[in-house]
Amino acid sequence: VMARSSPLDKHTLVKHLRTTFGEVVAVTGDGTNDAPALHEADIGLAMGIAGTEVAKESADVIILDDNFSTIVTVAKWGRSVYLTVNIVALMVNFTSACLTGSTPLTAVQLLWVNMIMDTLGALALATEPPNDALMKRTPVGRQGNFISNVMWRNIFGQSLYQFIVIWLLQTKGKSFYGLYGHNSDLILNTLIFNSFVFCQLFNEINSREMEKVNVLSGIWKNNVFVSVLSATVVFQVIIIEFLGTFASTSPLTLKQWYYSVLTGFLSMPIAVLLKMIPV
């Protein structure tokens, strides 16, 4: 805390913390004399009520209620929101194209999967309210990795499971489901697409907690998360059952739907086992 100091003093302190010591620096202020330090800092937080216009223009974040506890909320949200990575779609299509000359997922299906993983998935996970346990984590430094070892563990574990399941479906799926005839390839590709989508949906639930086993805690309190997942399931049913010409899919039987959902659900116990692996 610096008080009764000149603008140059504050700016010098922030500059040395950032350049000499490599620290990530946040500065709060409300006056014109805080502007240089607010601008120099990695994150400048200005007071929205008592703050001057100069301070607000120099800041990155404006605290509208002038309450320092709001800064804690900002930090919680910053630690809560992360990006997700999925490599299975690329691996499955690439290896299948190299070995068989065809890809199980069409362009329209890949677009829908991409929407689930990125747009809808990000919307669902970004609305997860942060908890106090986030503040107990060690801060990530300037040279820290954006994707932690815990995240890499979960990413590669789930990716390996999904890749194995989809590859088994592609090689053994026809005999497992008893698919024969001219329409067997279309039904098999539909099953691969459907299973892959449900793997992503259940993995979104797994991603609510990177380290805790109980990922269902408080899920019903987040209306946006539940709504996004429900809407995705509804659209998936419509795509499979009614948009066959557009999405290159074929209607599935109840047994085939059951196994597709079960394939996705198995990612949840696998996530529990992954979280037991120390990193």
UniProtKB/TrEMBL annotation:
Q: List UniProt keywords, sorted A-Z.
A: ATP-binding, Calcium, Calcium transport, Ion transport, Magnesium, Membrane, Metal-binding, Nucleotide-binding, Translocase, Transmembrane, Transmembrane helix, Transport
Q: Which reaction does it catalyse?
A: Ca(2+)(in) + ATP + H2O = Ca(2+)(out) + ADP + phosphate + H(+)
Name where it mostly resides: membrane
Which residues are in the Cation-transporting P-type ATPase C-terminal domain? 103-277
Which GO molecular function annotations are given, in alphabetical order? ATP binding; ATP hydrolysis activity; metal ion binding; P-type calcium transporter activity
- What InterPro entries is this protein classified in? ATPase_P-typ_cation-transptr_C (IPR006068), ATPase_P-typ_TM_dom_sf (IPR023298), HAD-like_sf (IPR036412), P_typ_ATPase (IPR001757)
What residue intervals traverse the membrane?
Answer: 146-166, 186-203, 224-244, 256-274
Which SUPFAM superfamilies does the annotation name? Calcium ATPase, transmembrane domain M, HAD-like
Gene3D superfamilies, sorted: Calcium-transporting ATPase, transmembrane domain
Question: Could you name the Gene Ontology cellular component terms for this entry?
Answer: plasma membrane
Subcellular location, in the record's words?
Membrane
According to its UniProt record, the EC number is 7.2.2.10
Q: Which domain of life is it from?
A: Eukaryota
UniProt membrane topology term: Multi-pass membrane protein
Question: What NCBIfam families is this protein classified in?
Answer: ATPase_P-type
PANTHER family, per the entry: CALCIUM-TRANSPORTING ATPASE 2, PLASMA MEMBRANE-TYPE (PTHR24093:SF474), CATION TRANSPORTING ATPASE (PTHR24093)
What is the protein name given in its UniProt record?
P-type Ca(2+) transporter
Natural source organism: Ambrosia artemisiifolia (Common ragweed)
